[in-house]
Amino acid sequence: MTFDIKVFNNISEEGLKQFDDSLYTINQTQNPDALLLRSKKLHDMTFSEHTIAISRAGAGTNNIPVDRCTKDGIVVFNTPGANANAVKELVLANLLLSARPILKSAQWVQTITDDNVEEIVEAEKKSFVGTELEGKKLGVIGLGAIGAMVANDAYRLGMEVMGYDPYVSVDTAWNISRRVKRVTDLDELLSTSDYISLHVPLMEKTHHLISTEELKKMAPEAVLLNFSRGELVDNNAVLQALADEEIAGYITDFAEKSLLGHEKITVLPHLGASTEEAEINCARMSVRTLKNYLETGNIKRSVNFPTVEMSFNTEFRLAVFHENVPNMIGAISNIIADAKYNIDNLSNRSRGDVAYTLIDLDHVTEDQAQELAEELKSLSHVIRVRHIKNLQRKDY
Ligand SMILES: NC(=O)c1ccc[n+]([C@@H]2O[C@H](COP(=O)([O-])OP(=O)(O)OC[C@H]3O[C@@H](n4cnc5c(N)ncnc54)[C@H](O)[C@@H]3O)[C@@H](O)[C@H]2O)c1
Ligand SMILES: O=C(O)CC[C@@H](O)C(=O)O
Fold first, then answer.
1. ipTM higher than threshold 0.95
2. Is residue 294 located within the same domain as residue 316?
3. How far is the CA of 281 from the centre of ligand 2 (A)?
4. What is the pTM of this model?
5. Which residues belong to any copy of the ACT domain (predicted)?
6. Which of 53, 192, 278, 298 has the fewest other C-beta atoms within 10 Å?
7. What's the number of domains the chain is made of?
8. For residue 347, which of 377, 305, 295 has the smallest C-alpha distance?
């Protein structure tokens, strides 16, 4: 048995080499078992019936039709936090670059043709006076892996930092310095910040999170930074706000034609996660997560199915994806009991409208496990069933 993985985008070899040749092939079939990708857009893609998982080597999963995958029992994974430091460093670099005309002044020095360079620079440096970050106010919207790091390090740079995140997870909340002021009113953050940095995922609810109304609340000297997703910000509204001097600048990692050539807009080519370290971290984590799921059925770091992890000691395991409705465990157990098999271990978790059940069985053959899987598939509310052979067990 082998799993074929379809790889899109530039995934670090450090991750790909974790796929051992005895069990995995890469890009060998039209019907891959799993997809591994970075920013490739999958919304228009029809998935093969064989495809059971999609692993995003990165944080954002807005390039994947997650709801459709959930309905089809395709598990979508991401790599939480694996590129957070890279993004944080780029945000801090851009805060510093926007406080002082560093790039502009460096470019100007290169244009000097006279021999008395020292005299010229001393005379002209008055044109390149900047400001300091110390004492300035930074508002961070979204205090997850990246936002928390940006908030903490900006505080260490001497900034006054406030953060807004009504949905922050308990784990992340622990990482946020108590010096970061938590606000529950977005308007307070918008109207009092010198810099505003966005670190929320793109979803229906966050599309154009920053538009005309929000820009009007910002201070005329405020700079907006967007290293999250282009669609979080209404670009036309930003162009208007800059023309009306309602804000002072926009820095974005998401290029769009209308933003180019504007002296108050800095556009980067989606570079947030482009460091050697982040690319390796994301590739390693995404491959590890995918292998774990393909080989054991254990689900960790999924954005659409619950985390279910159970040590796999039996010969076979059944993995049942089903709707989160009453009596599913009863119905599943009845089928197994009627077939006279003994359940060695069982774990079930739900997430929203769906649930996932792992059932471990010993003393069954591959054919019997497959037959059981087929029977379970015919139950109402069941979305998908896998039967997984324990590759670590040599005694059958
Ligand atoms: N530029 C890049 O290359 C790059 C790299 C990594 C991540 N990203 C983007 O950054 C986003 C954040 O990444 P992360 O790793 O910090 O993710 P994360 O999931 O750890 O954090 C996101 C945070 O946003 C919060 N949030 C959700 N909706 C919100 C709302 N309406 N208002 C305020 N907070 C809200 C969540 O509670 C969570 O704490 C990703 O979704 C991705 O789009 C971009
Ligand atoms: O893969 C990349 O270069 C970007 C990843 C980034 O957008 C993310 O959401 O993690």
1. yes
2. no
3. 12
4. 0.96
5. 317-390
6. 192
7. 3
8. 305
